[in-house]
Amino acid sequence: MRLIKTATLAAALALCGGAAHAQEGIDDSTRAPYYDSFKGKKVAYVPVAMGFDLTEGWAAGLKEALEPLGVTFDIRDPNWSTDAGAQAITTLISEKPDVIVVHNPDVQSYARLLKKAEEAGIYVVQVNMRSSYSTDVFVGADYVGMGQQIGERLVEVCSPAKGGSGKVAITQGVLTAAASIYQMQGINNVLSKHPEIQLVSNQAADWDATKAKNIAATVIQQHPDLCAITGFWDVMDVGTAAAIKESGKNVYLLTQGGGNRMVCDGLANGTYSESVVYFVPGQARDMATMIKQLLQLKQPAGTTKTTLFTPLTFLRKDNMTAASCWDMPTKG
Amino acid sequence: MPGMGRLSQEQIVFVLAVGLCAVFAVALPGFLTTNNVLNLVRSVSILGILGVAMGLVVIGRGIDLSLVALMAISVAWTLSLIAGGMPLPQAIAIGLAFSLFIGAVNGWFVAYVEIPAIFATLAMGTLVYGFGRYFLFDLDVVYMPPAGEPLLWIGQGTLMGVPVPIYLFAGVCLAGYLFLRYAKAGRYLRAVGDNMLAARITGVPTRPTIVLQYVLSSLIGYLAGIITAASVASMNTRVAISTYVYDVILVVVLGGIGLSGGKGGIRNVIVGTLLIGVLLNGMTIMDIQYTVQNVIKGAILLTAIVIDTILNPRDEQTAQQGDI
After folding, report:
1. B-side interface with A, Cβ within 8 Å?
2. ipTM value
3. In this predicted model, what pLDDT tens digit does every residue of A138-153 receive, in sequence order?
4. B7-311 — its CATH code?
5. Rg of chain B over CA atoms, in angstroms?
6. Which of A245, A277, B15, B320 is the most buried (most CB within 10 A)?
7. How far apart are CA A83 and CA A87, in angstroms?
């Protein structure tokens, strides 16, 4: 009996003590180093230009993820000028931020500068359009794979076996942009195996809707039985869509982009038939995660190379939901 | 035109355009069809309208490098005002007023402050673009909001089978022709361009005439912008920093309006526009790569200029001024 009493008492005491301890809480020993590793760090962002869905979306996502941690986030906007962009990176190399996030206008222009930046000890994260020089991190679409998937879609939609005419056209952006070069490779990989699909036009429209419209209008004129056009950017393909609408023909328009709300609206109202979407908020999150990792691991810049390909969604009117697209962050 | 055997630049370019047309018609099936010709003219009608605006300024011995930037910004602002809930007519009125105001400021700088037109308008173009992007709207490409859809007809509609932009191009050309030929201000404009001092001595109000040139160019530019926006349901403000304004100058100069002022008319603009249109259309049909297209375009333009220089050599009188 006595033994039981003692045991009960001891157990009660132990419980009380434990409870008291639990009230005080246990400190998570990883917190301090986690927050310390971001204090006073600087991240600089050099997009091709601000002011359109992709770059604004990435900036908003990075800001949201990094600034609460005490990281300074700085945007250098070269506004479509490759020279100004190179200048900005050169200046940054001497300013020595901890991370530079770069959106390359083409595969060559920044290659040497990015190497220099890494040599200066700055982590370099490339987003969506990669340079010929691989840096610490690349986050973006697998454009070769994307081109292959697009090629396969074109075959599916236009194959004469399924009643299509087999005639397709491509509207690229700028020929030297990574998005164009790698995708063409992918598309060619597929089309070379499908002689029944005929590529009747392959033109570049400089990411401009008016040029895209004029090209599409001429191509549809020449090939009234054109089955599909695939354009390399939804913003530009507004022009392609206008040309298709004016021609009154039924041409399948397969576009691509960051999945901004305007794409869902366009799919809903029939501007586009289908869009390949690399989800921009997801890419921003990937970049933020990689930046957090780099800053915590503290490896010298350029020692590790990570590629994160963004999952692609083929969005159509019938498979999209309210959550398929994202809204542009409001400035303020 | 000096001597019967000589061809003016306008005629040379016209011959080139017709020649190219003939070659394409034979070599490219489907080039010389009604639909393709309509499509060809439609695709360059905005360029042509801008060419008329630039042409008027150049005939008055000026140049307007802010034309495209002003067009892009004032129309993009109009669209974003409509998107913000402003009634369509009011938004258009505000955009137009902005455009005319900047045009008048341009003219004032050139006529009264006496800054060379090339610098005044170059700076103004940059200023307007920056101002618009920073203060007036956030995005690079401004979309046509649903409330602006009545406008779409201007850029995408057809009337009796002919696209509306072609009518507008024709209308602007006709108005420009009548202005230069019959309006008092139009004749003053040519007089000022030909010889400003002589015009002033004979009592022409030279400074107000110069201001008028730039106001007219901003007016026509705004119209061209509305057609652009209507035709692709969006306004890409990036054209402001592209080389588009040089394409416009090219159309004007290629057609034979000398940069030294006082020479040429609307017909020259039409001829220049047609040559560019034929070239672009033919090369797109042939699916020539974009970069190669630029090479061909440049080569043909140089050819036109070389032929002109050989047939119409410069002399003391024609080469004295205005060669930029």
Report:
1. 30, 33, 35-36, 39-40, 42-43, 46, 133, 138-141, 143, 155-156, 158, 163, 228, 231-234, 236, 238-239, 241-242, 280-281, 284-285, 287, 289-291
2. 0.81
3. 999 999 999 999 999 9
4. 1.10.3470
5. 20
6. A277
7. 6
